[in-house]
């Protein structure tokens, strides 16, 4: 199985740990210390939230300010539209922001959430039938129903 580790910088590690645990994530204590926190999204998806100083030991590149520059759009699926709304609302309640309106395509529903450091995540739900058949076939069936 392939695991995904997303490394993101933070200005305040303790704030980040509190923020991501408020979203329902756990921290893996084996990989959490004064420089980093291993945020567990699932058995296969992890965020390594790193202090900027520690993050800079892995790259010679300058930091892009995530508040003003987009480098990647991460999207994490949820089990329902309600789960999408619930996690975004938890993030906003703990210092995040939810820019824009929800994106509702009928077969897929998504919302963006920005953490206190400016790192963005999209949470989305896709109808399982649409995922299996493809969005065009699913929407055609819905229109006939």
Structure summary:
InterPro entries: Glyas_Bleomycin-R_OHBP_Dase, Glyoxy/Ble-like_N, VOC_core. Pfam families: Ble-like_N. The protein has 145 residues and is of the alpha/beta class.
Account of the 3D structure:
By secondary structure, the chain is of the alpha/beta class. It contains five helices and eight strands, in the order βαβββαβαβββαα. The chain has helices at 13-22, 52-55, 81-93, 128-133, 135-144, and strands spanning 4-10, 26-28, 36-40, 45-51, 74-77, 103-104, 108-114, 120-126. It has a four-stranded mixed beta sheet with strand order 1-4-3-2. The mean pLDDT is 93. Residues 1-126 form the VOC domain. This is Glyoxalase. It comes from Microbacterium psychrotolerans.
Shape summary: elongated
* Total DSSP E strands: 8
Strand content: 25-35%
H and E order = EHEEEHEHEEEHH
Name its key features.
8 strands; single chain; alpha/beta; 145 residues; four-stranded mixed beta sheet; 5 helices; elongated
Question: Helices and strands in order, then pairings?
Answer:
Layout: E1 4-10, H1 13-22, E2 26-28, E3 36-40, E4 45-51, H2 52-55, E5 74-77, H3 81-93, E6 103-104, E7 108-114, E8 120-126, H4 128-133, H5 135-144
Parallel strand pairs: 1-4, 5-8
Antiparallel strand pairs: 2-3, 3-4, 6-7, 7-8
């Amino acid at each position: 199985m392939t695991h995904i580790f997303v490394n993101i910088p933070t200005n305040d590690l303790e704030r980040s740990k509190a923020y991501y645990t408020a979203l329902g994530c756990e921290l893996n204590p084996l990989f959490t210390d004064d420089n980093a926190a291993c945020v567990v999204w699932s058995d296969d998806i992890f965020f390594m939230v790193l202090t900027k100083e520690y993050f800079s030991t892995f790259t010679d590149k300058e930091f892009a300010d995530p508040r003003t520059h987009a480098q990647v759009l991460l999207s994490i699926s949820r089990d329902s539209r309600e789960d999408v709304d619930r996690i975004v609302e938890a993030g906003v309640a703990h210092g995040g922001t939810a820019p824009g309106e929800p994106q509702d395509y009928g077969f897929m529903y998504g919302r963006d959430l920005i953490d206190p450091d400016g790192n963005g995540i999209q949470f989305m739900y896709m109808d399982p039938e649409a995922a299996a058949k493809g969005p065009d076939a699913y929407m055609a069936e819905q229109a006939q129903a």
